Amino acid sequence: GLALVLGKEAGLSKHQLSNLAKASLLQNIGYTLLPREVISSLKAEDDEKSPEFRQHPQLGYEILAKEKDLDPEVAVGVWHHHERWAGTGFPRGLKGDNISIFGRIISIASTFHALVSCRHGQKPFSPPEAAEFIVAYSGEYFDPKLVQIFLKNAPLYPKGTMVKLNSGESGIVVETNIGYIGRPRIRICLDRNGKK
């Protein structure tokens, strides 16, 4: 979902968006070649330190590159999804625009999803906290131009979310107001004293 929104806003064609969707869905196919005990023993904070974990983008690429009916850019997107903008990622330590557009997009989308999800017993971030993380690592982990697209299009306060405002009032998000980060439309339900 989010990867496709980013891809569309980045100007990818319909064909590229179709391939991006495939790469997003298949990004961790390399796990299938790792021993089950390795995958089940990984903790979120140790993932990137594990030599086995660091193999999965290369293994995924090797699986997909053999598929004659699959566009090669799908395999390359899977191969690059753990590369980092400043060159500190893996498996190849690629930097900047040498990372495929699919790899750069999937990196942002999968990081956001991982942060807001319950993984390995880790407490999830709220969507705004996850967005702050992505902004903090813009230019280091993530393509700065894609981070700006992310900020304009990510639903940080989904409809129905209960929020407490700085004023002490509480309300429910009634419109996400995409494009205005941190500025959803709120229906106030309780005043600062907790009265309806």
The rounded distance between the terminal residues' Cα atoms is 36 Å
Number of helices: 8
Mean pLDDT: 90
Radius of gyration (CA) equals 19 Å
Largest sheet: 3 strands, antiparallel
Percentage of residues in DSSP E strands: 5-15%
Helix content: 40-55%
Order of SSEs, N→C? HHHHHHHHEEE
Q: So what's the overall shape?
A: globular
Class of secondary structure makeup:
mainly alpha
How are the SSEs ordered, and which strands pair?
Elements: H1 2-9, H2 14-26, H3 36-41, H4 51-65, H5 72-80, H6 101-116, H7 127-136, H8 144-153, E1 162-164, E2 170-175, E3 185-190
Antiparallel strand pairs: 1-2, 2-3
Helix pairs in contact: 1-2, 1-6, 2-5, 4-5, 5-6, 6-7
How is this structure best described in words?
The protein is mainly alpha-helical and 196 residues long. 44% of the residues lie in helices and 8% in strands. The chain has helices spanning 2-9, 14-26, 36-41, 51-65, 72-80, 101-116, 127-136, 144-153, and strands at 162-164, 170-175, 185-190. The protein has a 3-stranded antiparallel beta sheet, with no helix packed on it. Strand 1 (162-164) and strand 2 form a beta hairpin. Helix 1 (2-9) runs antiparallel to helix 2 (14-26) and helix 4 runs antiparallel to helix 5 (72-80). The radius of gyration is 19 Å and the shape is globular. The protein starts with a helix and ends in a 6-residue tail after the last strand. The model has no long low-confidence stretch (mean pLDDT 90).
